[in-house]
Amino acid sequence: MEPIEQENNLNQLLESSSELSQDEIRSLLKKLSSSEIAHALESSPPKQRKLFFSLLETNEEGDVLVDLGEEIQQELVSNISNEELAEAVKELEPDETVDILQNLPEDRMNTILSKMSYRDRKRIEIGLPSHSIEVVINYLRDQEELPDNTDKIFVVNKEDEYIGEIAISKIITCKPNLTVREIMSTSSNPILVSQDDKEVATIFERNDIISSAVIDESGKLIGRITIDDVLDVIREDADQNFLGMAGVAEDTFAPPGRAARSRVFWLSMNLLTAFIASMTINIFKDVLDQIVYLAILMPIVASMGGVAATQTLTIVLRGLTLEQINSSNLRWLFKRELAVSILNGLVLSILVGLVTYFWFHEITLALLISFALIINLVSSVIAGVFVPIILRRLNQDPAISGSVVVTTVTDVIGFLSFLGLATVFLI
């Protein structure tokens, strides 16, 4: 039927019902959908509303009741017999039947349920928060099997909105005469369907949970997520971080062409940083021409800074991934890493200074490389702490680009400090 014709029938029913016979009204009702009939009922006075509903076929009443508001629904249900109501809801989905029955007095609700088949009754009873745990247990026993990792049952209201959950262990151990509402937990927060997978993994880890309800933005239950799904996310994230730091593809057996394409970008980035380091060295080419053994010692300063920066970077990346680092503890972490680098710098600079002195018999050179090493270790901490945080705020993955940036920083500062000090004190 065309929408315009349906609208005309609805308008005729609402505006001219007092002039129509019951047969004519019944004929108009047959031409309307359940939602349009519900609209007509809600738009009519109580007496007329009761007449319209009484003219419906029993198999139509259930669909119309579902589309009605709660107040009018209860009004009409109170005026029909238990047998008629049981017949009206027989073809409805269990959740729709629950919506209608849960507002009835308990004795009437039980009477109507008793008039249904055993299977239909159990499917409906499981959705009623006012029913006993014994009903839930019987329903679970009727199932051939439960989904994997089922450790709890979720409870919803008649709008399918999540209101709580019950642990299977609690169902088994509590008194069977307790109701669902009495023992369900409302303290657990469900997962929003829009939440980031890393956030979900963090929630599971912090709360040691096996499964969680998943809701949409309106709070309606749309499913669940289990620990095996989360483990997949954690593994994938760990793989991405590990492979990202090396700039390689995830597929171990990818064809050579695809594998080469996935690596060439970061190899090119590393080439660019190598040129930056080379340009820094080129600034001091005259110094290197005069004191050749500086070229022998340069890699020591740069390498030590790179390793120290990578250590700090790894710690910070782990903290960011686990959401352990925030504005309140960042300063403490930086001070801790700075103290560690200074202590290591003092120890290693003494060691490097002694080796350099016995190697080249130059006390000034030994002191210069010691100071340069301390400077570069301090710079490695600054780079290792702040580079990944800055990259995160720029919406870049620090696991992928962080190592390239910090290595460049430590190489450049290492060469600048060592060759710069040599220029000042040895030339």
Topology:
Layout: H1 3-16, H2 22-30, H3 34-42, H4 46-54, H5 58-67, H6 70-77, H7 82-88, H8 94-101, H9 106-114, H10 118-125, H11 133-142, E1 152-156, E2 162-167, H12 168-173, H13 180-183, E3 191-192, H14 197-207, E4 211-215, E5 221-226, H15 227-246, H16 256-283, H17 285-290, H18 293-321, H19 330-360, H20 363-393, H21 398-426
Parallel strand pairs: 3-4
Antiparallel strand pairs: 1-2, 4-5
Helix pairs in contact: 3-5, 5-7, 7-9, 8-10, 14-15, 15-21, 16-21, 18-20, 18-21, 19-20, 20-21
Can you put this structure into words, describing what you see?
The protein is mainly α. Among the domains are: 1-119, MgtE N-terminal domain-like (MgtE N-terminal fold, Alpha Horseshoe), CATH 1.25.60.10; 256-426, Tetracycline Repressor, domain 2. It has helices at residues 3-16, 22-30, 34-42, 46-54, 58-67, 70-77, 82-88, 94-101, 106-114, 118-125, 133-142, 168-173, 180-183, 197-207, 227-246, 256-283, 285-290, 293-321, 330-360, 363-393, 398-426, and strands at residues 152-156, 162-167, 191-192, 211-215, 221-226. The strands form two sheets. Strands 3-4-5 form a three-stranded mixed sheet. A hairpin with a 5-residue loop joins β1 and β2 (162-167). α16 (256-283) runs parallel beside α21 and α18 runs antiparallel to α21 (398-426). The protein is elongated, with a radius of gyration of 37 Å. Residues 248-252 have low confidence and may be disordered.
